[in-house]
């Protein structure tokens, strides 16, 4: 009896050790909540839980590596900390994974502790279930029922207005009949002497008529001239684009530098439309939209995800296989800013040579609306626009006014040397500005500068 109890006790101990080992292997000894934080901080650039990004999906990865490669928890720790060294050691399964995923080398994480890795594995094994999000676009209860009621109310109002209008017409007809019945013979004679046609009125008051016609002709000429002067001025123009792109999200919330995408604005005459490959630098790993607090009214996650899929279609990117298919589709962007052919404008001249001068001038004229990037002086606060629009007139007068008010920095190395012999002469020529030299003083109003 005693022997049986000892054997039973040993069996229970063995089962307990087996269960604890199994639990440890599957990551249950870790903290899933802390693992979620570590996962988002270290893994989401290349991995997702439920789909392939650059690397494979990580949900259930502990069970998967055990089934596929017959490896244990220690192998996962080695792989995460230094997969390169593990492959170099000749580990068969490590090299199979490397070959399977296009020889894309995984980052090394020697900074993660054993506890950190256990927490991440616990999260991938049993990720917390998020509560379902409330559908903001769903109609309020009873909205469908209220629609017919609103329609019937509108019909009643229209019928009532028509009835009132008919009643007013009937009253006017009756009043006219009463007036005719009440007219005396004297009134009838007086009516016969009144002007009954435009011709008679013009003959009687022709001087006044000619004066009115002259005034109307002048006003019409001014109106036509004013209309002609504003042809091609489209301030506020903001067309819909084939792929929705929010500058507020990218330049505003994410603080992406303008020149990361519009690089030629700094080094060339024209600020080009970025290639779709520039978008793929980030969106190769960002395949869905998860920033709820950046959403615009009337737009949901499905809308933003659909726009990202348009980028993939344009570049021929297959997110499932993480490779390009070679089937691309050109994107027909609608141009917003476009100078006429007879106007010369060089972006680099303003972005590099005139950067600080333009910023200082703008902030001086707009103390309550200061800018920190030279692009905003012409294009407005682009980092607050969801849909880009033309923020200024971009007329000749608008450019000239800027040249007349923007002060040139005569102390920077280039201007100090280039205008060395003209410096004192210009100060004497423009004493009204207290020695300040604006762009117009150094040729900013010469016709050939902009028209060639």
From TrEMBL:
Keyword Thylakoid: no
Keywords, sorted A to Z: Heme, Iron, Membrane, Metal-binding, Signal, Transmembrane, Transmembrane helix
Ranges where the Cytochrome c domain occurs: 30-128
Any one GO MF annotation of this record: electron transfer activity
Pfam families: Cytochrom_C
Keyword Membrane: yes
Low complexity biased stretches: 138-148
Signal peptide start-end: 1-25
InterPro entries: Cyt_c-like_dom, Cyt_c-like_dom_sf, Multihaem_cyt_sf
Region (Disordered): 128-148
Residues spanning the membrane: 156-173, 207-230
Protein name: Quinol:cytochrome C oxidoreductase
Highest taxon above the source species: Bacteria
């Amino acid at each position: 009896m005693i022997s049986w109890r000892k054997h039973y006790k040993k069996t229970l101990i063995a089962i307990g050790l087996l269960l604890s080992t199994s639990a440890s292997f599957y990551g249950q000894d870790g903290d899933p909540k802390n693992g979620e934080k570590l996962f988002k901080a270290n893994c989401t650039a290349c991995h997702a839980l439920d789909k392939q990004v650059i690397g494979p999906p990580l949900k259930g990865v502990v069970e998967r590596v055990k089934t596929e490669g017959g490896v244990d928890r220690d192998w996962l720790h080695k792989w995460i900390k230094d997969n390169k060294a593990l492959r170099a050691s000749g580990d068969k399964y490590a090299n199979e994974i490397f070959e399977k995923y296009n020889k894309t080398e995984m980052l090394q994480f020697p900074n993660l502790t054993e506890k950190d890795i256990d927490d991440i594995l616990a999260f991938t094994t049993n990720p917390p279930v998020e509560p379902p999000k409330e559908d903001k676009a769903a109609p309020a209860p009873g909205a469908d029922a209220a629609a017919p009621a609103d329609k019937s109310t509108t019909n009643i109002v229209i019928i009532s207005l028509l009835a009132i209008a008919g009643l007013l017409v009937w009253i006017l007809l009756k009043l006219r009949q009463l007036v005719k019945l009440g007219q005396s013979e004297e009134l009838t004679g007086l009516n016969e002497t009144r002007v009954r046609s435009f011709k008679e009125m013009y003959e009687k008051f022709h001087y006044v008529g000619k004066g009115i016609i002259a005034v109307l002709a002048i006003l019409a000429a001014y109106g036509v001239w004013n209309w002609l002067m504003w042809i091609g001025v489209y301030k506020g123009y903001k067309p819909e684009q084939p792929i929705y792109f929010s500058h507020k999200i990218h330049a505003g919330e994410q603080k992406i530098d303008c020149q990361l995408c519009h690089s030629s604005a700094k080094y060339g005459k024209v600020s080009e439309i970025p290639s779709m490959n520039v978008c793929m630098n980030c969106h190769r790993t960002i395949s869905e939209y998860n920033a709820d607090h950046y959403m615009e009214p009337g737009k949901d996650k499905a809308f933003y995800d659909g726009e990202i899929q348009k980028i993939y279609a344009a570049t021929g990117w297959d997110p499932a296989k993480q490779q390009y298919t070679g089937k691309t589709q050109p994107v027909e962007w609608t141009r917003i800013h476009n100078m006429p052919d007879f106007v010369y404008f060089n972006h680099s001249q303003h972005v590099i040579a005139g950067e600080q001068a333009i910023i200082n001038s703008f902030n001086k004229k707009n103390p309550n609306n200061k800018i920190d990037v030279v692009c905003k002086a012409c294009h407005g606060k682009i980092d607050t626009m969801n849909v880009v629009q033309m923020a200024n007139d971009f007329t000749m007068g608008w450019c000239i006014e800027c040249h007349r008010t923007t002060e040139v920095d005569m102390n920077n190395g280039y201007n100090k040397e280039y205008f060395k012999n003209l410096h004192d002469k210009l100060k004497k020529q423009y004493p009204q500005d207290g020695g300040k030299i604006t762009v117009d003083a150094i040729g900013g109003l010469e016709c050939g500068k902009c028209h060639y």
